[in-house]
Amino acid sequence: MYRLQLKPDAVVLLDGSGLSRQATPIATLKDEYGGVSNIIVDDHCYVLVNGSNTVKHWYHEAVEVLKTLPPLRTAQVLDEIGGIVSPNASSSPTGDDK
Q1: Is 94 part of any domain?
Q2: Does 92 reside within a domain?
Q3: Nearest to 50 by CA among 80, 9, 17, 81
Q4: Is 90 among the domain residues?
Q5: 8 A C-beta contact, residue 30 and residue 22
Q6: pTM of the full predicted structure?
Q7: What confidence tier does 82 reach under pLDDT thresholds 50, 70, 90?
Q8: How confident is the model over 17-75, as pLDDT tens digits?
Q9: How many domains does the chain have?
Q10: Domain boundaries, position 56
Q11: H or E element, residue 98
Q12: Is residue 91 part of a domain?
């Protein structure tokens, strides 16, 4: 059974279409057999990665973690690191981005 780790992995290597890249997980789940899954943000969407491959089918434990994450349509996504910040955070240093 997969369990959410207190601290996500630092990085996950993704392999797709012959190209490899890195992403910073926002959540990591591990099972007792050495299985590792990570939830990352890609193109403003949550994506489940098993090992180094993205998957189309989310298992129950991953769905339960997904339910605890903020909706991306209201959160600002830090594309470079895949982290989530407050939806009320200002993009302007002065807070005047209106």
Answers
A1: no
A2: no
A3: 9
A4: no
A5: no
A6: 0.70
A7: low
A8: 555 688 899 999 999 999 999 999 888 889 999 999 999 999 999 999 999 998 886 55
A9: 1
A10: 3-85
A11: none
A12: no
